[in-house]
Amino acid sequence: MQIGRVPLVGRQADLDALRAEIAAVDQHGRAVVVSGDAGMGKTRLLRDFTESLDDGVIVVRGASVDSGSGPAPLTAITDLLRDLVDALGADAVREAAGPAADALGVLVPSLAEAPADAERLAERLADVVVELFSQLARTHRLVVIIEDLHWSDSTTCEIAARLVRRAAALPLFVLLSYRTDDVGRRHPLRPVLAELDRARLLTHRPLARLSPAEVGALATAVHGDTLPADVLHDIAARSDGIPFYVEELASFSDERLPVSLRDVLLLRYERLDAEAGRFTRVLATGGVEVPDPVLRAVFGGDDSALESAVRCAVDAQVVVVRGDAYAFRHALMQEAVYAELLPTERTRLHTAYAVALEAAEPTTRVLADIAHHWRAAHVPDRALSAAVVAQHAASAASAWSTAAEAGERAMELWDAVAEPEAVSGMARVEVLRRTSAALLAANRNDRALAFAREAVALWPAEDVVGRAQMLGDLATIEFQAGVSDGVETLDQALAILGDDPRHDVQRAGLLLSSARAHMMNGRQGVGTEVAARAGATAQAAAAAGDQGAAEILVQALLIAATCRTTTGDAGGLALFEEARARADGFVRAMMRYFINYSNALMLLGRYEDAVAVAREGQEYGRTHVADLGPLVMIQANMIEAHIYAGRLREAEELGGLLPMIEPGLYSAFLRERLVCLAIWRGRIDGAEAALDAARRELDMFGAYEFQTRFGMAYDLGELALARGDAHGALSHARAAWQTRAGGVLALPLTAVAARAVAMLRENGEDADIEPYRAVLASFSDWPVAPLWASVFAAELGEASWASAVDAVGPAYIRAYAQVRHGEELLAAGERTAARDVLAAAVAYADRLGADGLTARAQHVMTDAGLTGDASRSVLTAREEQVLELVAEGLSNGQIAERLYISSKTVSVHVSAILRKLDAPSRTAAAAIHRRTAA
Prior knowledge:
Elements: H1 12-23, E1 30-36, H2 42-51, E2 57-63, E3 65-66, E4 71-72, H3 75-88, H4 90-97, H5 101-104, H6 118-123, H7 125-139, E5 141-147, H8 154-167, E6 172-179, H9 189-198, E7 203-206, H10 212-223, H11 229-239, H12 243-251, H13 259-269, H14 274-286, E8 289-291, H15 292-299, H16 303-315, E9 319-322, E10 325-328, H17 331-338, H18 343-358, H19 364-376, H20 380-396, H21 400-414, H22 420-424, H23 428-441, H24 445-458, H25 464-481, H26 487-497, H27 504-520, H28 524-543, H29 547-566, H30 572-582, H31 587-603, H32 607-623, H33 628-645, H34 648-654, H35 665-681, H36 684-701, H37 706-722, H38 726-733, H39 735-738, H40 747-762, H41 770-778, H42 785-795, H43 802-805, H44 811-827, H45 831-848, H46 851-863, H47 877-887, H48 892-899, H49 903-917, H50 922-933
Parallel strand pairs: 1-6, 1-7, 2-5, 5-6
Antiparallel strand pairs: 3-4, 8-10, 9-10
Helix pairs in contact: 1-2, 1-49, 3-4, 7-8, 8-9, 10-11, 10-12, 11-12, 13-17, 14-16, 14-17, 15-18, 18-19, 19-20, 20-21, 20-23, 21-23, 23-24, 23-25, 24-25, 25-26, 25-27, 26-27, 27-28, 27-29, 28-29, 29-30, 29-31, 30-31, 31-32, 31-33, 32-33, 33-34, 33-35, 34-35, 35-36, 35-37, 36-37, 37-38, 37-40, ...
């Protein structure tokens, strides 16, 4: 577990919004209120915000406190005044307060002697405090923060509201916060906030719960070590995205519910009356959310008693009503309350739930819940029967995680039942087969492999077709799990089936799996041939209306299209179009179309088209409940297309879900792409760390997948070059010509080789570059080949970098070529042209998010004395205009009038200028402008 400060995660947009608000302060101030449930990170957000302010800002901060019997009076105001004294000194505060300073002595004795008429002065305290801050706002850059307004007394609430009103006319920044779960319908703060809202004096900033990716990032940061994907999924599900809960669960990941968190969660529950407490225990047994009819059946008693209990629990912020269902406000509260049940109480309530649900509509979720409740009620035979039924329903609905869970539960119960096959109506091997298939679809490869191997070992030898199909399933799982390419197991299955024409569809399916294995392992010629055999074998059955055979024909077309495109044959695109026209109704075939076609478009340099196809695939996968693995792969393609298109920041954001993905073929591919992203972002140390952390997974799952292997070779070559290790870079680049498996994926490796050879030649060494030249020649007609050929020639000093700048290919490589072209011009003595090219390169690289290239170009300009416009070259034309007016001393409002835009738009431009110039304030940005314009 990490000791010390945990980074702020998932709040960058909120932080940027607060910075934009304070940047908008000129003659008029701003007021913002940050809201969210307990544990959402309000205090940490405000802390990070204030720490980012420059030294010229005076920040005073106070927090209201609950005394246990109600608000502790004026604690927030006392804190504000003490901060003022610390910042300005008691004399300056007294001077600003004027004759009324005596009233402040009621709260801060250092400001005045204890007055004799303290009670009378206290009545004027609100007036005095508001006037004091108003006066100081006229002469200082002042930020007033009042936290936890949900615990504020009436005077503090009044002072906060009046300061918000004053901010409309004074250069004052007021920042408030409160807990939404403590501000009920009758809370006195509600009408105050509503009135300020109506007057449009207050900007609301409600904090959203963290996304699963953000939960993963925060949990990893808190724990200090990489947590398994299943643990991160568990934390994400149980924490509801609330940062405090995430931190507690990650800090004590070996405990189901840490005592510190349990005690916090039970505070509200323990204040409920007896009936409301019983209601919450009944609800906790049912889960996080339970429909009203089911809960009524279990709760028993008359309706008025239930309604009274529900009302009490809702008012206490323990339970919420969602449509016609009841739910705990937080999932972890359900766990904490459930832990309070007595053993006999649990058994009774689980039995009641199982009986009640058996009378409900048998949806997938209901069937799974019935199995859960019978199991928890210790009735194994009924639990097993229900689990098998639930698995069948979940698989039919493509709810793979539910199907996998139901299958695992069934196998856990199998030996506890006297006659399990009679109870379940199914053979053990069939349950194992279905469970392994569900686990594979849910991307839980290791568990799928274990179940599949057991099924193969137990499968009756006389069931030829069933055993062959199970071997086919095992081969697929072996490939996905990185155990082997699966071809040997598929050959065993094909041998079992023999040539019996009755098994043509099964044989075609096995041939299709074999073709895919060859394709994924870089044996495109064999893959194309075997795919053709699969299609021919399935043809007759497809013509007779067999839908399974029809899907095999579509999948065979997709394999042929992918193999042809990868080997540099653009004619493969026509096969993709043919497959798409025949794929409707086949979910898995459609997902393979979206994955393979978007990848083919990237190989061709059509990155925006690839983004569009991948996005369509994501939507299709979500609406048709595709397997998790293909959904991860289409996400990886989306990230890759963004990388090549030059949207590196967006790609980085999309890659945040990686820690939540189970290790496997798909996560290995995604990990490799994120290493490349880190390199192109200029984060070499981060790329090294990411590669080290992922190496075991990449080696295991990338061993049988050529695309990941070639991507890794490029990454390793680039990292070797960054370390100055030319020989190491060449050792990785050799994959370009040592095997033909990579096809057009070998092209980037030629650039790595050329730069490595150039480095060797600078040191008096050399290496054979001709094999790489031959690779380029073999793909000379490919759309992106001219870019790589131009880079290759320029690295070796055989041509100018200019020809690579506008060629078709990855945006990062074109930006790199632009920087190198500027360096080339500078070396030739063409300083003016070099300055223009490098300035343009800085702007382009910054737009892409290629921070390393941006820094490189800026350093070259600085070292060469070409910085006349360098510091502003990262700004857009509009930002240049805004900066000029800021330097003239104009306020945001005046700039808005001058440029005919809104003040809000100006504030956004100012925030962008400060970020890009790394300037702490408007004054600093203006100084940079004057210096570079001179």
